[in-house]
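In the design runs reported in the main text, the only information available to the sequence generator was the tokenized backbone. The following block is the verbatim input for one such run; it is reproduced so that readers can re-run the procedure and compare outputs position by position.
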């Protein structure tokens, strides 16, 4: 028996629907000493795995000072305060690892049309 069978995980209402290719802004709770603040990390989702289960995670990539930075977040983590979808991307792959080798205009993702 696993821990997720005993404890029901309630989805965070501040996490919007998103998928690979979307640009998201992830708000993370950061604890520094006795102070707590919220830090934002904005970038393109290059991977989403685990569905909506307790081990679901996603990876966000952004370029900071001409260096690619990737962070992986647990979807049901108490450290993730909110996930806001900034822009919907139109991609044909579920794993966007090819973006690691691209830079500048070549790394752009087309915007998805309105549904």
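Verbatim output:
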């Amino acid at each position: 028996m696993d821990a997720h069978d005993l404890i029901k995980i309630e989805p965070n209402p501040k996490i919007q629907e998103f998928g690979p290719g979307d640009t998201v802004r992830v708000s993370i709770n950061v604890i520094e000493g006795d102070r707590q603040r919220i830090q934002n990390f904005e970038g393109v989702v290059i991977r989403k795995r685990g569905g909506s289960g307790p081990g679901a995670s996603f990876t966000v990539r952004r370029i900071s000072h001409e260096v690619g930075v990737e962070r992986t977040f647990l979807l049901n983590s108490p450290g993730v305060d909110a996930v806001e979808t900034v822009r919907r991307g139109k991609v044909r792959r579920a794993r966007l690892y090819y973006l690691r080798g691209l830079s500048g205009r070549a790394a752009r993702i087309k915007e998805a049309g309105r549904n």
